[in-house]
TrEMBL record:
Residues 426-549 form the Alpha-glycerophosphate oxidase C-terminal domain. Signal peptide: none annotated. The keyword Ion transport does not apply. InterPro entries: DAO_C, DAO_C_sf, FAD-dep_OxRdtase, FAD/NAD-bd_sf, G3P_DH_FAD-dep. Residues 26-368 form the FAD dependent oxidoreductase domain. Belongs to the FAD-dependent glycerol-3-phosphate dehydrogenase family. The keyword Flavoprotein applies. GO terms for molecular function: oxidoreductase activity. It comes from Mesorhizobium calcicola. Its EC number is 1.-.-.-. This is Glycerol-3-phosphate dehydrogenase/oxidase.
Length: 570
């Protein structure tokens, strides 16, 4: 596979122009978050011509604001969503196999403060109560973890749970609140680069189907007489006539359906905010584990090591304006107070925050009194074609990061039925992006690094860094300029040629795309003003920006980072 093929950049503008020239396409997917991207890859692999469009960047909405977990949904047992737990644990196990460059096991510790509390409340919730269980005791948690292990036994790749008493728990993690009576430990998984996984799904789809195309920063302008007209941010408007439209716009679904002539009221989203703390003492105490715990109001919170920072989340507040979402001061205090209560021997001040982010979960409209009780399951309601709209519209409602592949498979099968086609391949064992041929163990990794060093002449430490960041696509990036242009001024983890590769091959339109989604420079807290300026120059050189455009991009990035992400650039 050539670098151009792998990057999906074999003249993307040409692909789009060719599609617009004929005006014909099987399926248009509106929204390039995780659900839209997963469906795009699946349909492309079946030989269906697809156009995926996003009004902003790929993976820049809700899909960029998760807890960065790939989990089976332990808490869904309380609401009786056993089918969702079964699917989630299976999909978690599959992602550990198909995306090993980004998804890895995460030992998870539940601090327990009583032996028997919560049993009656859990039964009431199971049978439809609108009040969440509080003070879940050891007996209830033991039962839950046994059921969770049972559901996770398909394609099992991680150990089963264990429980220990207070003395052993405090010896293993002395910082915990000493009032605990026990802890339970089970295994879920985390994802290091969720925004890049979205991009890789799109690249995989393009690589498998030359008749498909993708475009970001492109708005749907009109829908009339079966024709969709789009306006790129920087380009000429174009139109296509699809046989079917999939609305994967997440929290914007109802807005998009109104434009399509299929008005709906499907979404009743909730807001989730997270903060990342520079807290070396806490990260050391966690030792690679996640604490999954109950806040004072009964909501579930978590804290774990993400890129050397302590990621704390999340809030769960009813909200419906995804364009203005940000982590508010009261949410910050709520998250800080939650970890103060759990870890009373440590200090947690706002000054430790290096980054914050927030997003709207596109959950189904619900009258549940508590946001945490709104189902995280998914559905795909259909607005059938009519006289004014000759194509049907399938809306992807709800869902969660972990189950995107299974959701995509369900919708792809329904789409194939409508197009009177059959499935050619399954995505169940299909590697994603740089997960293809990823070294399966330490010995295989050593061999891969040795071969890559022989081919490129780059030291193995650097190649190992690239392998963790891009999977097996690391070799293409290492070859790009042979990594010979030096590192950024203040960050030795990213080279100038690496940034140049990203800009030229990964659909970058704005500076924020590079620092917030194609890399972890912003969320990892390592970005400086000097690095930002250097990245802007590299990006501008590759994309032909003027000095004024470069200055505008820097200013816009700073406003977003400082205003929405609470980041202080040095």
């Amino acid at each position: 596979m050539s670098p151009a093929d792998a990057a999906g950049a074999e003249n993307p503008a040409g692909r789009l122009a060719a599609m617009a020239g004929t005006g014909e396409v099987d399926v248009v997917i509106l929204g390039a978050g995780i659900n839209g991207a997963g469906l795009f890859r699946d349909l492309c692999a079946q030989g269906v011509s697809c156009l995926i469009v996003d009004k902003a960047d790929f993976g820049s909405g809700t899909s960029a604001a998760p807890s960065r977990l790939i989990h089976g949904g332990l808490k869904y047992l309380e609401t009786g969503e056993f089918g969702l737990v079964a699917q989630s644990t299976l999909e978690r196990n599959l992602l550990l196999q198909n995306a090993p460059h980004y998804v890895s096991p995460l030992p998870t510790v539940i601090p327990i403060f009583s032996w028997s509390k919560g049993m009656l409340a859990a039964l009431r919730t199971l049978f439809g109560s609108t009040s969440a269980p509080r003070s879940r005791g050891a007996i209830l948690i033991k039962i839950g973890l046994m059921i969770y292990d049972f559901y996770g036994s398909r394609n099992q790749v991680m150990p089963r749970h264990r429980m220990v008493g207070r003395r052993q728990a405090l010896s293993e993690m002395p910082a915990l609140n000493p009032s605990i009576v026990a802890t339970g430990t089970y295994y879920d998984a985390k994802i290091s680069h969720p925004e890049r996984l979205v991009l890789e799904l799109i690249l995989d789809g393009l690589q498998s189907n030359a008749a498909s195309a993708s475009t970001n920063y492109t708005a749907l302008v009109t829908s009339a007489n079966g024709v969709l007209t789009f306006q790129p941010e920087n380009g000429v408007a174009f139109s296509v006539r699809p046989k079917l439209v999939v609305n994967a716009a997440g929290p914007w679904i109802d807005d998009v359906n109104a434009l399509l002539g299929a008005p709906s009221k499907m979404i009743g989203g909730t807001k989730g905010s997270h903060i990342l703390l520079k807290h070396d003492e806490l990260v050391k105490s966690l030792a690679g584990r996640m604490l999954y715990f109950e806040a004072d109001d009964g909501r579930i919170c978590l804290v774990y090591d993400y890129l050397g920072l302590a990621l704390v989340g999340s809030t769960d507040i009813k909200a419906d304006n995804p364009d203005a979402v940000r982590c508010e001061p009261d949410e910050v205090e709520y998250l800080l107070e939650s970890v103060r209560t759990l870890l009373p021997g440590m200090t947690f001040e706002r000054a430790r925050i290096v980054y914050a982010y927030s997003g709207i979960r596109p959950l189904p409209a619900s009258d549940a009194s508590l946001p945490g009780l709104i189902s995280r399951d998914h559905s795909a309601p259909v607005a059938e074609s009519d006289r004014d709209r000759p194509f049907a519209v399938i809306s992807l409602v709800g869902g969660k990061w972990t189950t995107f592949r299974g959701f995509a498979e369900e919708v792809a099968n329904a789409t194939l039925d409508r197009l009177r086609r059959s499935r050619k391949v399954t995505t169940q064992s299909m590697p994603i992006g740089g997960g293809k041929d990823f070294p399966a163990n330490a010995a295989a990794r050593t061999d891969w690094l040795a071969r890559a060093r022989q081919e490129t002449g780059i030291e193995e430490r650097r190649l190992d860094q690239l392998l963790s960041r891009y999977g097996t696509r690391a070799l293409e990036i290492a070859r790009h300029g042979l990594d010979g242009e030096g590192h950024l001024p203040d960050t030795d983890g990213y080279s100038r040629s690496e940034i140049d590769y990203i800009v030229r091959n990964e659909f970058v339109e704005h500076l924020a795309d590079v620092i917030m989604r194609r890399s972890t420079l912003a969320i990892g807290g390592s970005l400086t003003s000097r690095d930002l300026q250097e990245i802007a120059v590299i990006t501008g050189r590759a994309l032909g920006w003027s000095a004024k455009r470069i200055a505008r991009e820097v200013e816009a990035a700073v406003v977003e980072l400082e205003g929405r992400n609470l980041m202080r650039l040095d």
